[in-house]
């Protein structure tokens, strides 16, 4: 019995300390402090940026209650539990009832609220398990970049951007199971059939949740070079919308032969992707000689593409 009383009093001291500090510090500083504490800790933040945190609780559920109440007492609006024991909390992994957990698409990073910009719609694709590639236009107006996968947002870090060739390489916080194969062909053939796989935005459900639909298009290479015989560029006849920018361009064997760089159907050739990745010392996978001339059905290409292609989500501070 004495032990239980001691635990409760210790908890009260810790919670009081966190609450009093939260009133005099930014959400970011409180979040950094919370991150250093031991488990049975929780972090809550309101849509107005006011936050509360708790640690030293007997259970994680108790820590959630205390963090939530602290946020509300300090003036937080619509406070949401965003992390428990250092891990993001979603309604799918929490068994605690009566909590209004943060939506998967409301991101809190270092105590700062980020919201998706529905006007920005691009595609990226994995070139190995950890790195994905897109265009520089996908990142230039965003505070952070995430991508959507199976109803979740996953953070990606910008590693390097080539503004001349409009290529950006990102590193995913979580490895992807599959990746694209980069074509080893040294020459682009006019008239060659092409496929693209991008994503269309379907809008924001309840003004909060962005949703996407994968889209595959087919066409041919109409021009094997760009303006003034720019050998880096090819033009395709595929139907291209804004959401397809950053999408892979694939040949009939499913290998990537380029990346869509604008909605005027121009694409940067895969040879430029290889040069860029080599310069960054980032590994990628090229065509197996046995499969170089092996054609596969469009449905198989679509199935493979949707596993290594992702819709990018532009996040800016709320």
Q: Helices and strands in order, then pairings?
A:
Elements (H helix, E strand, L loop, with lengths): L1 H21 L4 H9 L6 E4 L5 E4 L5 H14 L6 E5 L2 E2 L18 E3 L2 E5 L5 E5 L4 E4 L9 E6 L2 E11 L4 E6 L20 E13 L3 E15 L9 E4 L11 E3 L5 E5 L5 E4 H10 L18 H11 E9 L1
Antiparallel strand pairs: 1-2, 1-3, 3-4, 5-6, 6-18, 7-8, 7-18, 8-11, 9-10, 9-18, 10-11, 12-13, 12-15, 13-14, 14-17, 15-16, 16-17
What descriptors fit this protein?
318 residues, alpha+beta, 2 domains, six-stranded antiparallel beta barrel, 18 strands, disordered N terminus
Separation, N- and C-terminal Cα atoms: 47 Å
| pLDDT averaged residue by residue | 81
**Secondary structure tally: strands:** 18
Report the principal-axis shape: elongated
Helix content: 10-25%
- What pattern of helices and strands is seen along the backbone? HHEEHEEEEEEEEEEEEEEEHHE
Structural class by secondary-structure content: alpha+beta
Described by its quaternary structure, the protein is single chain
* Gyration radius, in Å: 24 Å
Kindly report the CATH topology of the largest domain: Thrombin, subunit H
CATH class of the largest domain: Mainly Beta
For the biggest β-sheet, the strand order reads 7-8-11-10-9-18
How would you characterize the largest beta sheet? 6 strands, antiparallel, barrel
Name the poorly predicted regions: 1-22, 90-105
Instruction: Count up the domains.
Output: 2
CATH architecture of the largest domain: Beta Barrel
Strand proportion? 25-35%
Provide a count of the helices.
5
């Amino acid at each position: 019995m004495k032990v239980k009383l001691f635990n409760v009093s210790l908890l009260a001291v810790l919670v009081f300390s966190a609450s009093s500090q939260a009133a005099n510090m930014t959400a970011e500083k409180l979040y950094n402090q919370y991150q250093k504490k031991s488990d049975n800790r929780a972090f809550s933040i309101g849509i107005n940026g006011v936050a509360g945190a708790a640690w030293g609780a007997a259970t994680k559920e108790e820590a959630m209650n205390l963090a939530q109440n602290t946020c509300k007492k300090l003036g937080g609006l619509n406070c949401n539990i965003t992390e428990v024991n250092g891990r993001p909390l979603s309604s799918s992994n929490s068994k605690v009832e009566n909590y209004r957990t943060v939506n998967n698409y409301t991101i809190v990073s270092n105590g700062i609220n980020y919201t998706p910009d529905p006007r920005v719609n691009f595609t990226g694709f994995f070139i190995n398990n950890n790195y994905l590639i897109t265009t520089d236009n996908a990142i230039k107006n965003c505070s952070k970049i995430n991508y959507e996968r199976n109803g979740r947002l996953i953070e990606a870090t910008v590693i390097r951007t080539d503004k001349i060739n409009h290529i950006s390489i990102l590193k995913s916080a979580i490895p992807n199971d599959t990746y694209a194969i980069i074509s080893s062909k040294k020459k682009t053939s006019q008239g060659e059939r092409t496929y693209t796989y991008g994503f269309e935005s379907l809008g924001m459900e309840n003004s909060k949740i962005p949703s996407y639909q994968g889209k595959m298009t087919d066409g041919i290479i109409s021009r094997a070079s760009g303006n003034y015989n720019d050998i880096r560029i090819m033009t395709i006849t595929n139907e291209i919308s804004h959401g397809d920018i950053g999408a892979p361009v694939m040949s009939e064997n499913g290998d990537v032969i380029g990346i869509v760089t604008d909605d005027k159907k121009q694409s940067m050739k895969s040879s430029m992707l290889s040069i860029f990745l080599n310069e960054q010392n980032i590994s990628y996978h090229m065509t197996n000689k046995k499969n170089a001339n092996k054609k596969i059905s469009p449905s198989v290409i679509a199935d493979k593409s949707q596993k290594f292609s992702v819709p990018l989500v532009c996040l800016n501070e709320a």
